[in-house]
Amino acid sequence: MASICKVTLIGNLGADPELRYTPNGKAVTKFRVACNSRKRTPEGEWQDHTEWFGVSAFGRLAEQANELLHRGSRVYVEGRLESRVWESPDGRRFFLDVLADEVIALDPRPRAEGAEAAPRPAAIPPEEPDTLDDVPF
């Protein structure tokens, strides 16, 4: 039986995205998203908490994310989780990454001279297969 491992994030980029290419020429963009939450302490005061998530996008999605996003951008990310474990001089290390299937820039579009900003999101379309051989069914 199949399982589902899906994550949805809405947050802000902590730095500009980093675009690189694999030896095969496939684009890979990595960026970090900060998601904020608030909760009450036992004393009744509000306490802010920020959780950071590493996100990786591939192919055309990676190139478009690199063009549309920048430090501070508000973004919607949908994808799946992938964990990595490796040995370092400090011991065993663990990292959880979000592999993006969809990225939507939520910032208002820049306004034209004298016009109001349009708060429509800029959706980055999912990558389409190069050939029918790449279709997963």
The helix-strand sequence is EEEEHEEE
Compute the separation of the termini in Å. Answer: 17 Å
Structurally, the number of domains stands at: 1
Secondary structure tally: strands: 7
CATH architecture: Beta Barrel
Please identify the structural class as seen in this structure. mainly beta
Given this structure, which CATH class is correct?
Mainly Beta
Report the biggest beta sheet as strand number plus sense, adding barrel if it closes. 5 strands, mixed, barrel
Strand order of the largest sheet: 1-3-4-6-5
Treating each run of at least 4 consecutive H or I residues as one helix, how many helices?
1
Mass-distribution shape: globular
Strand content: over 45%
Radius of gyration: 18 Å
CATH fold-type name: OB fold (Dihydrolipoamide Acetyltransferase, E2P)
Helix proportion? under 10%
Structure in words:
With 137 residues, this protein is mainly beta. The chain has one domain (7-110, 120-126): OB fold (Dihydrolipoamide Acetyltransferase, E2P) (Beta Barrel), CATH 2.40.50. It has one helix and seven strands. The protein has one helix at residues 59-68, and strands at residues 7-13, 18-21, 27-40, 46-58, 74-88, 91-105, 122-124. Strand 3 and strand 4 (46-58) form a beta hairpin.
